Amino acid sequence: MAIDNQQKELLQKLPGVDHILELAATDSFFSDVPRTVLIRSVRSVLEELRSAIIENDHKLSDGDPADTAIMETVKGFVSRAMAFNLKRTVNATGIVVHTNLGRSLLAEEVVQNLITIGTRYSNLEFDLAVGKRGSRYSNVEDIICELTGAEAAMVVNNNAGAVLLSLETVARGRKVIVSRGELVEIGGSFRIPDVMAKSGGIMCEIGATNRTHLRDYENAVDDSTALLLKVHKSNYSIVGFTAEVLLQELVALGAEHNIPVMEDLGSGTFIDFSKYGLIKEPTVQESVATGADIITFSGDKLLGGPQAGFIVGKKEYLDRIKKNPITRALRIDKLTLASLESTLRLYRDEEKAVRAIPTLRMITESVENIAKRAGSLKKMLEKVDRSRLKIDLLDLSSRAGGGSLPLLELPSKCLGIIVDGISANTIESKLRSNSPPIIGRIEEDYYIIDPRTVQDEELAIIENAFDHLLNKS
Ligand SMILES: *Cc1c(COP(=O)(O)O)cnc(C)c1O
Fold it and tell me: Which atom of ligand 1 is nearest the CA belonging to 188?
């Protein structure tokens, strides 16, 4: 592109990196900014200005005003470079196990243990009783067995890894029988057929999408069958003219033919949610008691712990799984192990677990309680600007999320917010760029805040964000 004289002049007027650095040296804003970050920011800003001049869409004024404007842009660059990419976020969606927002929150007690183990040496792989090398998995195996009734257990990086490792161990090169109604896809590209293929297991689909019978499994069993697999329909349900085979029927069939049965429970809960007036989810203890040989589930869905994948069941199979070299590639680190052990210990007292583990507390929170929080937040927001804000308290539903409890809608009391002169879309994007970001949802013309997933101390964050939205922008 040809450059005319005026552009040439502008380019010559552009200050050098050193000049901007000199200005920065006298500005306390930059005193704690690493020099590399500052230099990178200055270069980027000058580079952008140069391109803008060449593309003819920049007005550069003389002398100091230009310097001042450049410094402001540099400050913006530096602030963005210094901010964390992974940051705390206010979840106002009402989806408790929100996969995009970090799934489960750790309990306070759990974080204390995380700090101790993270900042100190530990017996991660050291058997203190004999003074020799030990196994990291033995740190949680006893408590998992105690809570679930299983003979043996181990933990890997996540449930996808648990399924892969289990299939690879028991079914590589052999047939795995699974119902067509259970070929699940979870967000983030976990699909049973793909994981099966990667494990080397040969998938044998049986039944129809809506109906699978015991005789379908029976007809498919042959000498090359390694496993009968049942997968929990975590994020969908099949309704209407349906039939599925119960775990106990599969266990009986497996026993008859000497074929192990594996269940991928997905969420995996130790708590019977029907006791809290919610829908019945199969518990891990029930699957163990039914006699499944291998059961897998997540650590950070309904269990409310860190990301992890549990494998529990019969010792015979767990011994083989533990020896699989892939275990090393899927192993959990000490921070996960520390938070997992302390989360699991909370389950020894169910009432305590429901109070202390945020996922359980939020899922079981009564609508009366949520309504109180909704009322407080409404009052706080109305103090910000009663004239432009219209807030209705709406009877809407929260969800457990994370591919858990697909049918369950948790009754909630939400704030439906309308701001005079600002669209719901604009509110959504402004709050999303707040520090910390606030994530809500839009329904019809309302910007919706569901207080179920908003922590008490976050109400003030929302109040400040609305203050900013209405009074300072
Ligand atoms: C969520 C889920 C998985 C994957 O678990 P991650 O812990 O996310 O790896 C596998 N199977 C089922 C049925 C699930 O619901």
Answer: 8
CA torsion, ordered 295, 298, 301, 304, to nearest 10 deg:
100
Residue 377, domain CATH = 3.90.1150.110
The atom number, within ligand 1, closest to the CA of 300 reads 7
Give the span between the Cα atoms of 354 and 278, in whole angstroms.
Answer: 14
Say if residue 133 is in the same domain as residue 117: yes
Q: Which ligand 1 atom sits nearest the alpha carbon of residue 163?
A: 10
User: Same domain for 144 and 246?
Assistant: yes
346 and 392 co-located in one domain: no
Q: Please give the distance, rounded to the nearest whole angstrom, from the Cα atom of residue 186 to the centre of ligand 1.
A: 7
pTM of the model: 0.92
Polymer length of the chain: 473
**Residue of 190, 231, 307 best suited for mutating to test ligand 1, as the one with most atoms within 8 Å of CB:** 190
pLDDT 10s digit of each residue in the chain, 473 long?
678 888 888 888 889 999 999 999 999 999 999 999 999 999 999 999 999 888 876 655 555 557 888 999 999 999 999 999 999 999 999 999 999 999 999 999 999 999 999 999 999 999 999 999 999 999 999 999 999 999 999 999 999 999 999 999 999 999 999 999 999 998 778 999 999 999 999 999 999 999 999 999 999 999 999 999 999 988 888 889 999 999 999 999 999 999 999 999 998 999 999 999 888 888 999 999 999 999 999 999 999 999 999 999 999 999 999 999 999 999 999 999 999 999 999 999 999 999 999 999 999 999 999 999 999 999 999 999 889 999 999 999 999 987 666 667 899 999 999 999 999 999 999 999 999 999 999 999 999 999 999 999 999 999 999 999 998 76
- 182/241 same-domain check: yes
Q: How many domains would you assign to the chain? A: 3
Q: Give Cα separations from 154 to 146, 379, 450 (angstroms).
A: 13, 49, 37
| Ligand 1 binding site (Cβ under 6 Å of any ligand atom) | 158-160, 163, 184, 186, 190, 231-232, 234, 264, 266-267, 298, 309, 403
Most informative mutation of 99, 186, 264, 269 for ligand 1 (most atoms within 8 A of CB): 186
Alpha helix ranges (H) inside 2-137: 5-13, 17-25, 35-54, 63-82, 108-119
CB contact at 8 A, 400 and 386: no
Give the integer Cα–Cα distance in Å for 311 and 144.
Answer: 10
Of 439, 354, 443, nearest to 395 by C-alpha is 443
Tokens coding 245: 């085979």
Same domain, 247 and 144: yes
d(CA 315, CA 324): 14
Q: Look up the domain containing 49 and give its range.
A: 5-82
Q: In 3-state terms, what secondary structure has residue 412?
A: strand
